[in-house]
Amino acid sequence: MSVGVFILVSVVKSLIVLIALLTAVAYTVWLERKVVGHMQNRWGPTRVGPFGLLQPAADGLKFLFKEDLTPPHVYKPLFIAAPMMAVIFALTSIAVIPFGNSIPIFGYNIPLQITDVNIGLLLVLGVTSLGVYGVALAGWSSNNKYSLLGGLRASAQMVSYEIALGLSLVGVLIQSGSFSLRTIVDAQGGRFLGFIPRWNIFHGQFIGFFIYLMAAYAETNRIPFDLPEAETELVAGYHTEYSSMKFAMFFMAEYANMITVACLATLLFFGGWHGPLFGPPLLEAVLPVFWFLAKVFCFLFLYIWVRGTLPRFRYDQLMSFGWKFLLPLAIANLVATAIAVAW
Amino acid sequence: MSFHLILFLAFGAVCAGGAVNLLAQRHPINSALSLIAVMAALAGEYLLLGAEFVAAVQVIVYAGAIMVLFVFVIMLLNAGEEEETKGSRVAILFGVPGILTGSVLMASVVLRHSGTEAVAIGALPGHPTDIAQLLFHDFLLPFEVTSVLILIAIMGAVVLASKPEPAAGKVD
Amino acid sequence: MVPLSYYLLLSGFLFACGVAGFLIKRNIITIFMSIELMLNGVNLSFVAFAAHWHALSGQVFVFFVMVVAAAEAAVGLAIIISVYRTRETLNVDQVNLLKL
What we know:
The structure holds 3 protein chains of 3 kinds. By secondary structure, chain A is mainly alpha-helical. Chain A has one domain. In chain A, 66% of the residues lie in helices and 4% in strands. Chain C is mainly α. Chain C has a single domain, classed as Orthogonal Bundle (Helix Hairpins), CATH 1.10.287.3510. The longest helix of chain C is centred in the last third of the chain and has 31 residues, at 57-87. Chains in contact: A-B, B-C. The interface between B and C is large, with 87 and 69 residues. Strand 1 of chain B pairs antiparallel with strand 1 (2-3) of chain C.
């Protein structure tokens, strides 16, 4: 593949993935409003388009045309930079997520992934760990006590749960022996006993998956761990002072992070794009991507389901849950996996 | 001028600029942010040197954990702009010329004693498995000792940062 | 191809900036950040030498430096918090008594 073709392919892939991700973000918001609405015996959005399907477009327009207020006593450079940081770090990690096997186009074998690096998982973890700056700096620069408390809570929470999150993934890494997300998925092909798929969750990593799920909910500041934006005590937490497109950026960052978490859970624990293949060659080429997206959708639905079901923790409960329960459990899981692999 | 050199200079400029900015800024949070920029750019330099695992760990540990702690403490203590004192003026008076002389001396030594040795991109396999082999096999004892070090540091931090015990018999 | 000396120069410059910050700055948190900057400068020369001598152990030393830096940051920031709690200042010039 020549350099020109390589650059062209990379740019086209990045554009497609970015547009798909932003659309997915918009429609996750729609899905959340709709599903939570039905859970609470309401309709959710119905007015704009059939089933309210055009609601994300209407929301986007509204965000664009709202007045962009900057309160007088904020620290301006960081106040403006913080939402950008949040959204940039949230969108970056999608670059190493593979969506399926490679497909042949015009004689080139093009992998369905923007780039395959052999430290892919570490890159995602690194970028996610940088995401905390957006939230923390937004809280600090707003010059508002609720924002500051929200920012402090967010940074403490994200640093604490990052440890459990990282340790829960080490079990998977030991089993597959690689940081590359593509290799990890490839290691999960095949079946046990002819019918149970060889996914990591059925391969001794059930506890690891449980820890990952809990820690990832805390990392993305979602219910039941949404202490940084607990509206009953902190108004809106770190984004209290934000309006218009800057607020929308935090919103986008939160949902993009949810999608990244769902993609990672699918890739690491649920076999990525592996699933039953059948039908004509064209269908067979498309099915892996379909399975991948279906699994990601299930995770997003789980997020919304949990949001409609669980109440919020108290902050001390959150901290002791992370440090006294999840972390020891993650270490125990790691030791058990290491012994099992060494056996 | 090769592409590699251009990348080196770009990341190096961010590093140097961030380091100078750390000195120039009065507010600790600005200094912290410029240090984060330095660390991120250093991760880029590590990638150029073929040390991709080190680069990833640099971002995760330094930029993502240590500096978050710094920013957290700055926010928690609500640290303001630093004021100029007698001590700082003396330090600037003697420190800056001293540092400049030292850097120039060191630069001349380094430049004179370096031939045309060059570091190629991806010059050595910084593959995680090779590093794991070294870390968990050849350097196993130091590795285990650092884990004890971390444990002691955690306990020390908890003891130091926890609130002093309220006086005996006092009920609140 | 980038000569090794360029990496060493950059590393030396970062270290010098760290030393300068350590001397000039009066805020205890910024002083602490200057120490981190020095450690980073040293790390760069470790990695550059590792690439130059084709010896991976240079990279392994970077991990040990990072571990020490992490331990140091945890303890150091805890000390800063307890200093602030007793003296209500972060200026090192005002922290000049061993006992209050």
